[in-house]
Design a protein that fits this description.
The chain is built from eight helices and nine strands. By secondary structure, it is an alpha/beta fold. Strands 1-2-5-6 form a four-stranded mixed beta sheet, sandwiched between helices. It has a three-stranded antiparallel beta sheet with strand order 7-8-9. Strands 3-4 form a two-stranded antiparallel sheet. Helix 1 links the parallel strand 1 and strand 2.
């Protein structure tokens, strides 16, 4: 009964199930705020990420598909939300031609983007569609190659996601198929072959110290929470491939897959 909004996070070149989330929001009269930090240029049923809910939030931090070093953008079709967001970033001033009337209207901060940052981003926005298409071609090549290698796989693709963004493609590592060699040992060996990857990338949300607060007005003790699927994915299975890999050519993807096949061919040494 205290819930006011749902915040789906589109993570690792995958979008949350916006059909199901939208249905829940409509049933209970909730707002939907999309976290699209990984999803510049992604589409769900031919509708752009960030436009499926009431508000869409994109990051321009240095690791993102579009970047000006830091910052982000909020998009919405709701005039009330637009006015409120504008005031938050503009020191609490609402939009008005009367500067006096705008002063002290609400609490806000100085989160205004600079013109230099905007110019950097506009150039990237122009080339984003071409980059999304290029990444999706090289990702498709990765999926074809990985399908022939035992012990690693790509994640299944939801056909409702009609365009993927290409951010943070995830490989799933099967420890049993590698004779018990841990994901981290495999990742270090692949890194030694010159492949830039990320292994220990995310942890289950409930393990974050944020949820250790005892003065929060909630009745859940997160210290007793344990989600085995999330633990296995985070600690044993996930290998992240950064998006800039997929701006290269198919030969670069072949280098990555050849490195994995080399480890496979030398699994006795790796296990030893």
């Amino acid at each position: 009964p205290d819930t006011r909004a749902i915040l789906p996070v589109h993570l690792g070149s995958r979008m949350a199930d916006m059909d199901a989330i939208g249905a829940i929001a409509r049933k209970h009269g909730l707002k939907v705020i999309e976290d699209c930090a990984h999803m510049h240029g992604g589409f769900w049923r031919e509708q752009g990420a960030g436009t499926l809910g009431d508000i869409g939030c994109f990051s321009f931090q240095s690791s993102k598909l579009m970047t000006c070093g830091e910052g982000g953008i909020i998009i919405t079709s709701d005039d009330t939300f637009e006015e409120r967001c504008h005031a938050y970033v503009n020191s609490g001033r609402v939009k008005t031609s009367d500067r006096t009337a705008a002063e002290g209207t609400m609490l806000g901060w100085n989160y205004r983007i600079t013109e230099f940052q905007a110019a950097v981003l506009l150039a990237q926005l122009d080339r984003l569609p071409e980059q999304v298409a290029h990444r999706n071609r090289t990702i498709a090549h990765l999926e074809r190659r990985i399908a022939d290698i035992e012990g690693v796989s790509t994640l299944p693709h939801d056909e409702r996601m009609t365009t993927r963004s290409g951010y943070g493609v995830v490989l799933r590592y099967d420890e049993a198929a590698w004779r018990g060699v841990s994901r981290n040992r495999f990742a270090r060996a692949l890194y030694a072959e010159g492949m830039r990857i990320e292994a220990a990338f995310y942890t289950p949300v409930y393990s974050n110290p944020l949820f250790a607060w005892r003065d929060a007005p909630i009745d859940v003790d997160y210290s007793q929470t344990f989600c085995p699927v999330a633990e296995r994915a985070a600690g044993k299975e996930m290998i992240w491939l950064p998006h800039d890999i997929f701006l290269g050519e198919e030969a670069d993807i072949d280098d990555l897959c050849d490195g994995i096949e080399k480890l496979r061919a030398n699994i006795d040494e790796l296990a030893g």
